[in-house]
């Protein structure tokens, strides 16, 4: 997998709850490209629990929404907004797990409306939560002007994010 370079890292005023590395309250996700998929390895913590040792459903939805946005950024080289999200919680995710794996990919594209499928897998590889995000994408010109987005590239070398 190739690590995706965060194009906003170091930008003044960038405090995204999902992916800003300097947002102390945030989840600080990082992303990788694996073929058609965008992948994130995330480490749950007790501060994100709902019930005892159980990852809060709202945090799960946040993780899924964020990885869908990164699919748009990397695969389509633009930005946009989630206009609809359908989430299915199938199995509890434990905050005591060392990590979870998120995977997302484009399912369908109709002009500027994109369907992205995403899932969260526990350490045992079991699919626990899945979502489909309907994304409204901006033109590349609008993304560059209003979102300070000039594209999303990957690092040169393959990496294993679990090491």
Automatic annotation (TrEMBL):
Gene3D superfamilies listed in its UniProt record: Hotdog Thioesterase
InterPro entries, per database record: HotDog_dom_sf, PTE-AB_protein, Thioestr_dom
Domain Thioesterase: 53-128
A family per Pfam: 4HBT
Highest taxon of the lineage: Bacteria
A GO term, aspect molecular function: thiolester hydrolase activity
Name of the protein in question: PaaI family thioesterase
């Amino acid at each position: 997998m190739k690590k995706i370079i965060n194009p906003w890292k170091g930008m003044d005023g960038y405090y995204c709850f999902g992916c800003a590395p300097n947002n102390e309250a945030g989840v600080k996700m990082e992303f990788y490209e694996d073929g058609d998929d965008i992948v994130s390895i995330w480490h749950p913590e007790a501060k994100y629990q709902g019930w005892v040792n159980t990852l809060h459903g709202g945090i799960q939805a946040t993780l899924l929404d964020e990885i869908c946005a990164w699919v748009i950024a990397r695969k389509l080289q633009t930005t946009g907004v989630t206009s609809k999200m359908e989430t299915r919680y199938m199995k509890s995710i434990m905050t005591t797990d060392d990590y979870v794996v998120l995977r997302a990919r484009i399912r369908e594209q109709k002009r500027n409306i994109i369907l992205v499928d995403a899932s969260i897998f526990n350490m045992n590889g079991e699919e626990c939560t899945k979502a489909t995000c309907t994304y409204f994408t901006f033109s590349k010109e609008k993304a560059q002007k209003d979102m300070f987005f000039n594209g999303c590239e990957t690092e040169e070398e393959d990496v294993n994010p679990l090491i």
